[in-house]
Design a protein that fits this description.
The complex is a heterodimer of chains A (about 60) and B (about 475). In chain A, about 60% of the residues lie in helices and about 0% in strands. Chain A has about 60 residues and is an all-alpha fold. The chains are: A mainly alpha (about 60), B mainly alpha (about 475). The interface between A and B is large, with 34 and 40 residues.
Chain lengths: ~60, ~475
């Protein structure tokens, strides 16, 4: 279970590293400059990963979020 | 113009009415007034926490930042979601401890965990110094909105005083319930307004979001990406991480965490809040749309970007609707900040002098403190200048200094002592104040560092100093006391 918690770091890492590796306007992501679009996508992934962690976390019982 | 002002007045009355209604059916003892008797479900806690995202600082500040600086503004979008991830693991523990020991404020936590009233007083003082500029910022935003939206019919100062009076009344009457219920109205309104503006303006003015950004990239090359030095990508990474650490250290944020009914609430919110944060994109779109439309705003005037564009593009009644949303984004956080500051003064300063004070006395003193706090904030707002922004930055770097001690207190085996926590916070806060007021950066302090590292947010120095002193002093005083094992 503890191992699962570390999953939360993965999208945070990718969110931060994107603008470092590709600090260019193009390609636009969803019409946005690359760094902004990249950050937005990984924020959505963070939400998804937290949903997975929530579902598998025994402390939350079996009820849906 | 009159229709604009009528809508603004209606929004204000509506907020006031909602605050008064929220009170009904609840006796207003200490735990009811400050933390809603710890009975808030996921949705109300969500709204209190989300209220931190949509303050006037984001509404006017984020659009103004995007307008004035371009890419560095992206950091505001990023740090919140990282803070929520931390919140998943951190907040349930803080909430549990707060409920078990009837804590209602952030210094309560430190004083109780470390068994040290003096640590509680230290944290209180730092909190108050950090909170006042934050409150001033909300009032400044309020003044800007009313003055620009009403074409100067109501002066900035008059608007600030009326707004302050409204906040004072409903904080005294309804406490946290007023804030939570007004937050519902505020969030619905701001969501609708921001999404409409963020989609309509780029499409209407530029033919689409992609073509808007293409036009800006062509007109101002480099504006949409991080600069090579200064606010570079490394500044972005370090600032996002530092700001995320400070996020839950704001005393009003931590206090709203106590209001939850169950620990699961925070874990649920860690899923939804990042998505909610994405609405900020639309605020950026408005700011970027203004870049080529309302050129030439500089310095503090960049905060006007959103409103200038709205006034230029829409009929007066719609300016009133946007203005009303803006007024609510100032009033809701304003009331949270005022209530927190007043509670700190009564519970953690007066209460430290007179430990036998009853809960009723504490509530009474807190309510007396509300108009005093408000008067101080109004004074600084009206006489203040650009130094407010500096003060807010100091505030953020101050509260961040609580993080090492708070985290360490959750892991008793680390053996951090009360002396260590105290010394760490003092050193961290002193360094943070010095760094901010001297406008130092890693580049000016240590020019020999490689280019990327020179751009790292200078706040990291205060945090490292804090942790080093905390560890050193804890080692030296270990054995004299252990942290209360819970």
């Amino acid at each position: 279970m503890r191992l699962l918690y570390w999953l939360a770091i993965v999208p945070v890492f990718f969110l931060l590293i994107g603008p470092v590796l590709h600090n260019q306007v193009h390609p636009l992501i969803l019409g946005m400059p690359f760094p902004l679009g990249w950050i937005s996508i990984w924020i959505a992934v963070i939400a998804l990963v937290m949903l997975v962690i929530y579902r598998l976390d025994p402390r939350n019982g079996n009820s849906a979020p | 113009m009159t229709s604009t002002l009528i809508i603004l007045a209606l929004a204000t009355l509506f907020a006031l009415g909602l605050g008064l209604v929220a009170r009904s059916g609840h006796d207003m003892g200490l735990e009811s007034w400050t933390v809603g008797n710890r009975g808030f479900g996921a949705i109300l806690v969500f709204l209190l926490m989300a209220g931190e995202i949509y303050t006037t600082f984001t509404f006017l500040g984020a659009s103004g930042f995007a307008y004035g600086q371009g890419a560095p503004a992206y950091y505001i979008l990023a740090y919140g979601s990282i803070a929520y991830v931390m919140g998943y693991f951190l907040l349930p523990a803080i909430w549990q401890y707060g409920r078990d020991h009837h804590l209602v404020s952030q210094p309560d936590f430190f004083a109780h965990k470390y068994q040290s009233p003096s640590l509680g007083v230290l944290v209180t003082l730092v909190d108050i110094i950090a909170l006042i500029p934050y409150l001033v910022l909300q009032l400044t935003g309020l003044g800007i909105i009313v003055a620009v939206a009403g074409h100067g019919a109501i002066g900035k100062d008059t608007a600030i005083i009326i707004g302050a009076a409204v906040v004072t009344i409903y904080v005294i009457v309804s406490g946290i319930r007023g804030s939570a219920w007004t937050a519902v109205a505020k969030d619905i309104m701001i969501l609708a307004v921001v999404m409409f503006l963020g989609i309509y303006l780029p499409f209407h003015l530029y033919g689409g979001i992609g073509s808007m950004f293409d036009a800006i990239a062509k007109a101002k090359p480099g504006f949409l990406v991080f600069p090579a030095a200064g606010n570079s990508v490394w500044w972005f990474v370090s600032t996002v991480l530092l700001t995320a650490l400070g996020f839950f250290m704001w005393p009003h944020t931590l206090a709203s965490c106590y209001a939850a009914r169950e620990a699961k609430t925070f874990r649920k919110n860690a899923i939804v809040l990042p998505l909610y944060q994405l609405i900020l994109l639309f605020v950026y779109f408005v700011g970027f749309a203004a870049v080529l439309q309302i050129p030439g705003l500089k310095g503090a005037a960049t905060n006007l970007a959103l409103f200038k564009l709205v006034v230029a593009q829409f009929p007066p009644w719609f300016v009133g609707v946007v203005g009303a949303a803006g007024v609510l984004t100032a009033l809701v956080p304003g009331s949270m900040l005022t209530m927190t500051t007043a509670t700190l003064i009564s519970r953690n300063l007066y209460g430290a002098i007179n430990p036998r004070a009853s809960d009723d006395q504490i509530v009474f003193i807190a309510k007396c403190a509300v108009p005093v706090v408000m008067a101080i904030a109004v004074y600084f707002t009206i006489t203040g200048s650009s130094t407010i922004v500096t003060l807010l930055l100091v505030g953020y770097s101050f509260v961040t200094q609580m993080f090492p001690s708070l985290l360490a207190s959750l892991f008793p085996r680390l053996g951090v002592t009360r002396e260590g926590a105290f010394a760490g916070i003092v050193v961290g806060v002193a360094l943070a104040a010095w760094l901010t007021f001297s406008h130092a950066s890693l580049g000016t302090l240590m020019p020999f560092l490689p280019a990327g590292i020179r751009d790292v947010n200078v706040g990291i120095i205060a945090l490292i100093g804090n942790i080093a002193v905390l560890a050193g002093v804890s080692l030296a005083t270990r054995g004299r006391q252990a942290i209360a094992a819970e």
